[in-house]
Each structure stands twice: as C-alpha cells, then as structure tokens.
Design brief:
Length: 498
C-alpha cells in the first residue's frame, strides 16, 4: 500500500496537479501584492497630491476672502456678501470633491465655518481644539501649510489664513483653515476588491485543479496505452501495436521507437528459437552417432581391428564436432555478453595468418584442396591476437566449406594505405544479394546445399562479425552468383616488421 502511494506521488497526474496549483498560487500572490501594496501606495499618494492641491487652492481663496472681509468690516452688507461668497465657494469645492470637508477656526479654536445654522450637525465631522492644535504643530511644508495622516481613513490639511506664523500665539483675529480628506470610500473599495480577489482565488484554484486533471489525463492516457502494450510485449506478445493517433509529437516518436524495438526483439526472439532448435539438433546428431558406433564396436567390430578403427574414428570425429559446437556457442555468448574482454596489443598479423594456414595443411595433403597464398610479410596491427586468429580461422574454414569443385581457395594479406586488407576468396556458387546481410546472423543456413569436407557449426560468421564489431574493424563480402565470394577485413596498420 505504501509503495502504491509513493508511486502515485511520482505520477505525471500528481506532478501536473502540483505544478498547476503552484503556478495558480504564485499568480494569485503576485496579484495580492500588486493590489494590496502597490495600489494602496498609489492611491495614498494620489490622495496626498489631491489634498495638497485642494488645500493650496482653498487657502489662497480663503485668504482673499479674509482680506475682503477685513475691508468690509464697517459694512454689514459687505460682510454678509463676503460670507455668502465663502459659503458658495466652499459648497462648490465639497460638491466637486465629496471626500473633502472644509472648516475654518479662529485663534481660540472656535469653529467659524460651518456654524450650527449652516449644517445640522457640523460638530460630528469638525475636529476638536486638541486635534487642531496637534495638526498645526506638525511639520510644515515649504508654503507654511501642514498635511498629516491622522489614520487609515483620514488625512488632514491645515493653514493659517491671515498670513501669520502657526508657531506664534493665537489672537482673536487669527483664522485657520482645516480640510479633512476621507479615505473611507477608497478603503471600502479596497475591501470590496479583497473579497472579490478571495472569490477569484478560490475560482482560479478550482480551475487549476480541473485543468490539471484534464491535461494530465489527456497526456497520460496514451502513456498508459503504451505501457500496457509494453507489458504485453514483455510477456512475449509481439503482435502489439504501439502506433496510434496521439496528440503529441514526442509520444508519437516514442511509439515509433517502441514499434521498432518490438520488431527487433521479435526478430531476435525468433532467431534465438531457431538457433536453439538448430543447436539442439546438431548436439543430438553427434551424440546419436557416438552412441550408435559405440554400440557397433561393442556388438559387431570388437574383434575386427579394421572395423573397430573405422568406428572409433567416427566417434572421435563426432566428438570433435560436438566439442567445436559447444566451444563456438560459449565463445559467442561470452563475446556478446561482454564477459570476454579484449586484450589489445601489437603483433605481426602476417605470422598469425601463416600459422592458421598451416592448420589447414592436411586438406591439401589428403583431400586435394588448393590454397593460394598472397601474403606480404611483416604487416603489424594492434588488436586481440587470439580473437583475430579466430576470425582468420573461421573465414578460411567457411571458404573451405563452400568453395567449388576445383577446391581452390585464395588467401591474401597486403597493405592498403594506412590499413591492412585481409581477403579469403572461394570459387563456390556465390551468395544472392538478398542473403548477403543474413549470412552474418547466428546459425544462418544457406538455401543452397553444399558438401562440407570441413564440418562447421553454423556460428563461424556470427563469431567473426561479433569480434570485428567489438574491435571496430570494417568487414564485408563481395560475391557474384555462380563465380564465388570474397570475404574481407580491414585491420589498422601500425608498422612493418623488419
């Protein structure tokens, strides 16, 4: 159960879900920071700017009215006219800016405007004397005005209208302007935006979860299909098909790769079955003959020296064949598995070829084979000498098995630029073009029948290919049907021995 849960945490579905969720939360956090920090700072600065502009405008106009009022101090009608203009002006400003409330005080802190007759309850919004005093004692601007933030909801602006110093003692003639700037509307809007953002955040998170589930399902569905097909193939079902109409190019490429791997594994499996069948057959044949001739010696030829010698030789030959087959199978397995590492060193390739040819001397002496030699002396190369000797032996043995009725074989070794070219030519029936690639496969059997004076195991060319591929040497075959074949190998030329 624990393992299953651990796998789920490492699944594409879960990872995509987490990525989408983290991305959504990150975007929401950025939105919160922008709104709650940047926008609040922006609106606060805008409020300060507006308050300063309104304060400067109103203070200048009020100073003008104060001068006019002083000029009409002896005229009741003139004073009333000035007071009326002040009311109209202040009403106009407050109508244009609803967040602004304007007050005028005397030197004692008594509210002069608006008075109790102008508004129903001016005292509810007007600052008290202590507040006014505290505001006037704050740091002044370059104009001698004061602007201060009293709370999150209010700004205050104060200025002396009669041109006196705010630090001097108040007199009966002193007049003070006090403007209250409310941030309640803006804060209310911020509160509404916060709730809206919370709602949007919830919606975005649910959308992220839904979209991630949808996309992950769409992405993993073809992967699940491919996984199921791969599991079937692992159980030996090579009829599965990985290809399909997928929405993603990467998955299409993966499906094509797996189809190719399926075909190659299928070929390998089929070849393995064929090799096993052939090896089993070839193991059974010499064992059967060994048993049969041993019985003949026991029952028939025990007292006849000639027959006993003949039967004994058959047993020896079949035993040698059996041993060669087992050795070839083991060598091929060791080389392909990497257990048999290469022991690379420099040696005289000409001497190796001559030594191998001496092992085939009995064919020329007893069976009439003609082996022509065109071998340059002193050609040195760098490789695993034992493996190279096996390559040379297998190629010559293959030529012996498939050469023509003239029993002629040509072995050549010569320098070709910075390479050494080794060739073995027979005069057999040749190899059809469609078979030239398959002859290097394990246990390949030609469609043609041949008499093989030297009985092979069917693994010789496969061993040659495996050794040469492991060395990185070039090799191949040139053949013409009806005229024979030439197998060739290129070795690196290190130097010429003296």
């Amino acid at each position: 159960m624990i393992k299953l849960n651990a796998k789920r945490f490492h699944s594409i579905n879960f990872i995509l879900w987490v990525y989408f969720l983290v991305f959504a939360v990150f975007i929401l956090l950025l939105t919160w920071v922008f709104q709650m920090a940047l926008l609040r700072v922006f609106y606060s600065r805008e409020a300060e700017y507006d308050l300063d502009s309104i304060g400067i405008q109103v203070s200048e106009r009020m100073r003008y009215f104060m001068k006019a009022e002083a000029a009409f101090s002896g005229s009741a009608n003139g004073a009333e006219s000035v007071a009326s203009e002040i009311d109209l002006y202040i009403d106009a400003i407050q109508s244009e800016h609803p967040e602004v409330k304007i007050f005028i005080f005397d030197g004692e802190g008594t509210l002069l405007y608006p008075n109790s007759g102008d508004q129903a309850s001016p005292s509810q919004e007007a600052p008290n004397k202590e507040t006014l005093k505290n505001v006037l004692e704050c740091e002044q601007t370059e104009r001698g005005d004061v602007r201060v933030r009293l709370s999150d909801d209010y700004y205050a602006y104060a200025a002396r209208l009669d041109g006196g110093d705010t630090d001097s003692a108040a007199t009966d003639s002193a007049r003070y302007l006090y403007i209250s700037y409310s941030m309640q509307l803006a804060n209310s809007a911020f509160g509404t935006m916060q709730w809206e953002l919370i709602l949007i955040s919830v919606i975005v998170i649910f959308l992220a979860l839904f979209i991630s589930a949808l996309l992950s399902s769409r992405l993993t569905k073809p992967l699940h299909r491919i996984t199921q097909a791969a599991q079937r193939m692992a159980k030996g079902d090579f009829t599965v098909n990985f290809k399909g109409e997928y929405a993603y190019a990467e998955i299409d490429a993966l499906a094509e790769t797996l189809d190719y791997a399926k075909e190659e594994i299928g070929k390998s499996d089929e070849l393995q079955r064929e090799v096993l069948a052939n090896v089993t057959h070839d193991l059974k044949t010499p064992l059967t003959m060994i048993k049969a001739y041993a019985s003949m010696i026991q029952e028939i030829s025990g007292t006849d020296p000639a027959k006993r010698e003949k039967h004994t030789q058959v047993i020896i030959d079949e035993s040698d064949r059996l041993t060669a087959l087992i050795n070839d199978v083991l060598n091929l397995s060791k080389i392909r598995s990497g257990m048999d590492t290469l022991k690379v060193r420099e040696f005289d390739l000409s001497e190796v070829v001559e030594t191998v040819l001496e092992r085939f001397g009995y064919l020329t002496e007893t069976q009439g084979y003609v082996i022509e030699r065109r071998i340059d002396a002193g050609l040195c190369t760098e490789a695993d000498i034992e493996k190279v000797e096996q390559v040379v032996y297998n190629l010559i043995g293959n030529a012996v098995s498939y050469t023509g009725e003239d029993k002629k074989i040509t072995v050549a070794l010569y320098a070709e630029g910075e390479k050494i070219r080794f060739t073995v030519t027979d005069t057999g029936k040749g190899i059809a073009p469609e078979e030239r690639e398959t002859i290097w496969d394990r246990y390949y059997r030609s469609t043609d029948t041949h008499k093989r004076p030297v009985k092979g195991t069917g693994l010789g060319l496969s061993i040659v290919k495996t050794i040469l591929v492991k060395h990185g040497f070039a090799y191949g075959v040139e053949s013409e049907v009806g005229y024979g074949s030439t197998f060739w190998v290129q070795f690196p030329l290190t130097e010429r021995a003296n």
